[in-house]
Amino acid sequence: MTALRHAFACLQNPSACGEARVTPRKPKGSASLAWATPVLVGLLLSALSGCDDPDAQAVRGTVRLAPAVQAKIGGSDALFVIAREAGKQGGPPLAVIKMVGMSFPAEYRLSQEDVMMPGAWFRGKLEIKATLRKSGFVGMPTKHDLAGNAAAAVEPGAKGVDIELTPQ
User: Fold this and answer.
1) pLDDT greater than 90 at residue 62
2) Where are the domains of the chain?
3) For residue 39, what is the enclosing H or E element?
4) Is the entire prediction scored with pTM above 0.70?
5) Residue 137 pLDDT
C-alpha cells in the first residue's frame, strides 16, 4: 500500500518525487468521461493519502484593495482570481474563479475543481493573480480595472496567498 500511496503522491505533486514521474493518461475509449478524471483522481488521492481535508491542495488567500484605491464596487463588477503554471506566458489559465457581488477584503479558494481544461492538473509551482473588471467580463483592461499578483509562485496547499489590487 505504501508504494501505491507514493505513486499517487507523485501523480499529484511530481516535483516532490525526484526522478520518478507518473503521467496521467486519458481513459481509452471513453472521451465523454475524460472531464471527470481529474476530479476522481483527486478524490482517490485524498482517500489513499489519509487526508482528512479534501481542500488540502487548494490555494487560499485574500484579495484586498490598495489603500489609495477608492473603488466603488458595482453589481456587475467581477473579481477573477487566476492560477497559471509558473513561468508560462499566454494561453488559457490553469484555473480561474469568478466572484460577483463581493466585498473587500474578499477571500478566495482555488483548487482542482477550478481547472479549466479537461485532463489538466492543479499542481506544481503556480502564479496567482487577481483582476477586478468593471465590465464583469474578461477581455481588454480598461482604465477603471484593478489588478494584482501574489508576491511569489506557490505550491498547491498554500494558504495566506494575499493579493493587493491597484490600478492597471
Assistant:
1) yes
2) 2-49, 59-167
3) helix 37-49
4) no
5) 80
